[in-house]
Predict the structure of FAD-dependent oxidoreductase.
Amino acid sequence: MTSSYDLAIIGGGPACGPAARRCRQAGWSVAIFESGLLGGVCPHTGCNPKKVLMGPAEAVGMARHLAGKGLTGEPQPDWPAMAAFTRTFIDPVAPWLAEDYRKADIEVIHARAAFTGPNTLRAGNTDIAAKKILLAVGATHRRFDFPGVEHLATSDDFLALQKLPARLVFIGGGFVAFELAHLAAVCGARATILTHGDATLRRFDADAVARLVAATRAMGIAVHTNAPVTRIDKEAHGLCLSVPDLEIAADMVVNAAGRPPHIRGLALDLANVAAGPAGIRVNEFLQSITNPAVYAAGDCLDAPYALTPTADLESRVAAENMLTGNTTPINRTGTPSVLFTQPPLAMAGLTEADCQAQGIAYTKKEYDLSDAFPWQRLGEHPGYSKTLVSPDTDQILGAHILGHAADEIINVVALAMRQGLPAKALRDAIWAYPTCGYYLRYMF
Ligand SMILES: Cc1cc2nc3c(=O)[nH]c(=O)nc-3n(C[C@H](O)[C@H](O)[C@H](O)COP(=O)(O)OP(=O)(O)OC[C@H]3O[C@@H](n4cnc5c(N)ncnc54)[C@H](O)[C@@H]3O)c2cc1C
Ligand SMILES: NC(=O)c1ccc[n+]([C@@H]2O[C@H](COP(=O)([O-])OP(=O)(O)OC[C@H]3O[C@@H](n4cnc5c(N)ncnc54)[C@H](O)[C@@H]3O)[C@@H](O)[C@H]2O)c1
């Protein structure tokens, strides 16, 4: 028997919900296919568990900065209790979403789906026909094939740990490696970051990254570039990683080497859906460039960001375009990215290297936050900002902030960029004093 829907969504994460609800509200019949947990990575194995674990780690970090400045003694992270607290956030998500979709009369089918034709899917033993199909399958862990690959753990394994191992190695020099290494190190583990290339955190501004890497090393985290892992051996007292000219002992090795789109097994060829290593290829309306019945949103897209807020935005835009026939091009202007390290590194817009590569004229302003009151009172080092503004129009081209509260301040800059406000708007605003945001007037 074939079930028919107006919209079938493959994947029940952040890229699914807004489109499912919007299309159902418009009167469409909607089915969601989810092979794992409703809610996807963000609430189960991504943003949320990571941030809950970081709460105590942030308190420990702040206490260390304030030692000798009025605070004595150091709070001790209690990992098993942190893990138990984290579960209180994770466990309710999937049941809550199931109930919410049930109330909205959106069908949820707990099965892995794959294409059988341009408008048809199979999930388990069920055949499905849909007028439109939204691909929201997300991304997955990179595959390695070196000897000993079976000893590799994932970020999911790390975030589910009941006890923190003493020696952790992270393969990769991006978001996951830096955030989890900082978390582990503050909680008492010896952490090492190994990346195969000659630089880390490539999406961020190089000057801000240099300061963060220095701060990372000062915390006792080893950071090795040009260090591809060639094998992992299990030995009597743990694991031994081999990289050229170096052997490293570890209790856990985490694969943090990027997240390719989760498109294996979808049989995209049967639906004539074009995709490359970076993901599903779509036009500005998020419609497949080769199959007009198929749209895509979230981490499975070949797109500049793979974040929860961009998955949400893309889901809303895809829904609008499916309902109205391609009226709303995607606009990602003013997307903030935050690396939740200690301190956090936040950015929006272009880096200086982007401006140079694209031949865009810019006025650069650098500011030492560690010399400014809100950061000094917390005893925090380092602190840095770099802003890039058009000398002709005063438009904000990019902002890069490293320091306490950078993760919140960047939202204001991102809002200004999205609304097309000039840098003067930030210089002229009346900011509450003494907040970190007050110093935006000096950063621009
Ligand atoms: C450790 C970590 C920390 C992160 N921290 C942050 C952060 O702080 N801030 C931020 O903005 N982003 C963060 N992210 C990224 C964020 O989690 C993702 O961008 C977001 O979850 C993407 O949503 P999505 O719906 O595209 O994909 P996902 O959340 O991956 O959801 C896809 C869903 O599709 C299902 N699925 C896949 N294939 C099929 C199939 N064939 N049939 C049925 N179901 C299928 C999967 O089971 C999954 O539930 C983090 C990611 C990780 C890994
Ligand atoms: N705070 C946040 O918003 C947040 C946090 C975590 C993840 N994320 C999202 O999830 C995505 C995935 O994160 P990620 O850290 O896995 O990916 P990433 O793309 O940020 O970093 C991957 C890193 O792995 C390195 N690498 C690639 N192949 C390698 C190899 N063979 N050996 C060693 N290193 C290798 C890359 O050079 C890069 O440094 C991010 O791009 C981001 O969009 C966001």
About this structure: The chain has three domains: 2-44+87-140+260-324, 149-255, 336-443. Residues 2-44+87-140+260-324 form a domain with the FAD/NAD(P)-binding domain fold (CATH 3.50.50.60). The chain has 14 helices and 22 strands.
